[in-house]
Amino acid sequence: MITVLHEGTEPLPDIQQLPSLLKVSHIELYIIRAESGHRAYMRLSTNAGTGWSELFIQQKEQPADWNAWCSSAPHYIGWVNLHTVAGSPHSEKIRNYELRSLFDEAVRQVCRGQSHPGSRQPSQTEYAELFRQSVFYLSLF
After folding, report:
1. Distance (Å, rounded) from C-alpha 90 to C-alpha 65?
2. Domain edges within the chain
3. pLDDT tens by residue, 77-98
4. Global pTM?
């Protein structure tokens, strides 16, 4: 196995694994009030394009603290093994199924090639409106 160092600190994955890996470089999470709950929207920027997902969270399932709810999001930045995304999100290791579900769906969208021009992604104006309406916003690089 050949290990290549990137920027002096981060080893790149084995070359044979590259087709099954995706590099997530940016995550945005928007939480918007909705009737009887909240809508969570996630946008991923990856080396293969942009992915988008959304999820409704009922009022009774709403966390007391959105910061705590999304505390595992930084773990999704970096190299992602696409085989683990294809698996069940209900693994014992996953603390927040809703957040993982948002992430997995956004990754699947990238893999299906739906991040290319012409596919339905929110426009810059729509992103600005999401940000304006957000009761919580997270941006991770």
Report:
1. 22
2. 20-140
3. 999 888 777 554 444 455 688 9
4. 0.76
**Residue recorded with tokens 């160092």:** 5
The arrangement of secondary structure in 20-140, i.e. its CATH architecture, is 2-Layer Sandwich (3.30)
Phi/psi for 31 (5° steps) reads -115, 120
Q: Are strands 134-140 and 37-46 parallel, antiparallel or unpaired?
A: unpaired
pLDDT tens, position by position, 20-48? 889 999 999 999 999 999 999 999 999 98
- The phi and psi torsions of 44 (rounded to 5 degrees) equal -110, 140
Gap between the Cα atoms of 53 and 121, Å rounded: 10
28 contacts 136 by C-beta, under 8 angstroms:
no
Distance between the two ends of the chain, CA-based, in angstroms?
28
